[in-house]
Amino acid sequence: MFVGHFGAALLAKKATPRLSLGTLFVACQWLDLVWPVLVLAGVEHVRVEPGVAKFNPFAFDDYPWSHSLGMTVVWALAAGGVALLWKRTMTEAVVLGGLVMSHWVLDYVTHVPDLPLWFGHGPKVGLGLWQSVWATIAVELAIFGSGIFAFARTTTAKTPRSRWRFWCLIFFLTLVYLASAFGPQPSADTPAAAIAGPALFMWLLVFWAWWADRRNVVLDAREPTGV
Ligand SMILES: [Zn+2]
After folding, report:
1. What's the gap in Å between 103 CA and the centre of ligand 1?
2. 3-state DSSP assignment of residue 207
């Protein structure tokens, strides 16, 4: 899943208006932020296997640190703990921890059974929405669209420029998503580094989201959004 994760972060803004969209992006995409780093370090492994799923040809051979259920719980508790120390409110801790967890749940719905529960050779799970391109797109765009709608009703831009930053981000995410769905697929001999390397751009999206939300005002409270 790609834009569906960002949809979850956009939805979360209403519950935690003091948190920047950049922080919410870190939480919803934490597993995919650490994954390319671990693949490039040789800790986790991925390869291209044409036909493994209709939506994309990536075979996630092992990624327990970034994507096992057990480690996701650990990451989620850590995110909640950091939020509690930093913001000192339970709402922000629960939302940030919940967003980290939401990544695994949404991946569970979309991935073919490749998500480990823990380290080692245990069972792997996934409901396999990726076996239908159109169902994947419909579900993801529905979550993403709801998130955009909710975010737009929660905040307003102080200046036309900051409104543009937000809508350019939304347009860019949609474009990247549709290109990944309908663009050329990588060949079987693509090295892992060529798959994981471009995924590092996710870190840039975090900064873009922070930048886009920087001058927004929360509609209810009329107070600037936080960090
Ligand atoms: Zn993921």
Report:
1. 6
2. helix
Q: How far is the CA of 194 from the centre of ligand 1 (A)?
A: 17
Span from the CA of 156 to the centroid of ligand 1 (angstroms): 30
107 CA distance to ligand 1 centroid (A)?
6
Q: Are 83 and 52 in contact (CB under 8 A)?
A: no
Torsion of the alpha carbons at 147, 151, 154 and 157, rounded to the nearest 10 = -170
pTM across the whole model: 0.94
Read off the DSSP letter of residue 131: G
User: Could you tell me the pLDDT band of residue 216, with boundaries at 50, 70 and 90?
Assistant: confident
How far does the centroid of ligand 1 lie from the alpha carbon of residue 1, in Å? 7
Condensed to tens digits (0 to 9), the pLDDT of residues 153-195 reads 999 888 888 899 999 999 999 999 999 999 999 999 999 999 9
